[in-house]
Amino acid sequence: MSHSLLPLKVYLCAPRGFCAGVDRAIQIVEKSLEKYGAPVYVRHEIVHNKFVVETLRSKGAVFIEELYEIPKDHQDRPVIFSAHGVPKSVPEDAQNRNMFYIDATCPLVTKVHNEAARHHKMGLDIVLIGHQGHPEVIGTMGQLPAGSVFLVETVEDVESLDVPHPERLAYCSQTTLSVDDTSGIVAALKKKFPFITGPNREDICYATTNRQEAVKLVAPKSDAVFVIGSPNSSNSNRLVEVAKSYGSPIAFLVQDEKNIPWDQIENIRTLGLTAGASAPDILIENVISALGEKFSVEVEEIILTRENVTFNIPKLLREAEEHRDHK
Fold it and tell me: Which of 136, 167, 266, 293 is catalytic?
């Protein structure tokens, strides 16, 4: 059978898929379910991936958008804040309601929050580079008083930006942006506001950067690129843009194997394949299996770097784990 199938070379990007912050957030939900039993409430999707959310839901996680959705008789149940971070008002609201909450904010997002707070304390207003309405941006802007953070998405936004104290500014950025786009915006900010202060190290996280750099290696030799990820995942959408910018004629966001645009790839011979930071390995495996039914697939892994970053889960969940191990 296989000899009659057309050949397809799949260039599999590495690194791809889960980053340390996503891994930690999912573990926090799983360990909370183990320790406290179901239901455990999660404010907002823990990470932007439908498969992950459905899997956790099947184990007893209940996803809500706001704390008031938790029924009165369940207010003693744990509530977990998503990896994207939350405005300061959310833990305050939880305390006012006497709720027990666990914060699964990615440590690299927390770093941006702390940076913004530090600059604000020094009397600086903040220019935040990010996408309006994204939960991470809402969380970062919500660290500071209204009116002290100015959001820009593009170079044009910088050009039209009017601030009360141009000599007292600092910038920070969402962690999941395009490295190339952001560097253009930073250059525009420095040109317009020569006194602007930046972070010691760029805010875009290591995982976003690595996944984009890996796609840059693969895109020029691919007839098409698939990025496994959810439509509301910022870092996955950026990977599609990077693939197109760096030479792949077409690039698609593919949620899972049921979502493959077969009509668009009938005549391709090479396919770049990666996954956003919130997409699990199983989805990549399923896509490769599905491709194998229509093509004679050969997979070559293109390795940019090996990631070995891990973030600890909160102490109260680690203690539960140690307690179980000693039994």
Answer: 136
